[in-house]
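Students often ask why we bother encoding 3D structure as a string. The short answer is that it lets us treat folding as translation between two languages. Here is a chain of 335 residues written in the first language.
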Amino acid sequence: MSKTPPQRFHTLMQSFDLILGNHVLSMLKIDSSPHGRIAKIIKRICIFEKNWRSARTEAIADNMIGIFDSGEGGLSVFREIYRLLPEEKYVYYADNAHCPYGEKSAAFVLDRSRAITRFLLEKGCGIIVVACNTATGAAIQTLRKEFPVKFIGMEPAVKPAALSTRSGVIGVLATAGTLKAAKYLMTKGQYENGVRIVEQVGQGWVDLVERGILEGPEAEAVVERSVRPLLEAGADNLVLGCTHYPFLSKVIRTIAGPDVRIINPAPAAARHLVYVMVQEGLLDEKTATRALAKAAMPEDEKNIGPSEGKPDIELISSGDPAPLQHIFKMLYPGY
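And here it is in the second language, the structure alphabet:
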């Protein structure tokens, strides 16, 4: 990635617009001599504009998006990001040597998040997606203070669930770490006066995904133990508060039935990434417009199963790489 800070691009562009709009055009009305002072000013501005666009194009081309999770679950987020931004370059870090994060202390998760962030920055990533609810709750505020890049985090989608419930009861499925995090508790507090929020840890769900068991009798038995209490409490919206959980959506749907809404926050995180990249000068307007058009597609038009394409991505594991490769090839058989 270019060493020129993204903020500088905005400053340069604003300067160019100011010079061109407020000075050059007015001066042209006074003196249009091709050999005079005006011609020299225009020439300099054209060179400036050319250099600015060249530098910006180079920065966008060199930029990589870093994504990390405790394991393979963050690939559910990558899937949504790649659907919107298929031409970007990615580095995905699965910290499966320390998975799951949900059972670890906040201090441990923060230390791991710092170490992984430093690694991704050394790889050349210009923006980082913390594709883990537990790490978002334990680390993202500190990461934003300590590192000079933007971070996109995850949080359970309590708001859309609370706004769309018909029964007045919503269920949140998450890790123990996420359910204790200040960020989640603050969000929960904003909506629990109007609706009843019932919670369950997806006990054993992360392990299922890490082992590649996404359906079948074992998956159904493990998933039902956590989902059934929420249904019995009257929940008509189920919020998936861990990035591993969307891989079990088919099993959740089988148990919950067709009338229960299952909310995956990954698409919202992917949209937010696009917005932030535009603000930081890391994504051009044409690509962003195309990405947001895809994001606006109705749910039934989205390709949420195995996808075509060969993402430009480097897959890295802190432990055994086989589970990461296995899940990734399930998503992208042609990779």
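Translate back mentally: The chain has three domains: 6-61, 63-154+266-331, 158-263. Keep this in mind for the problem set.
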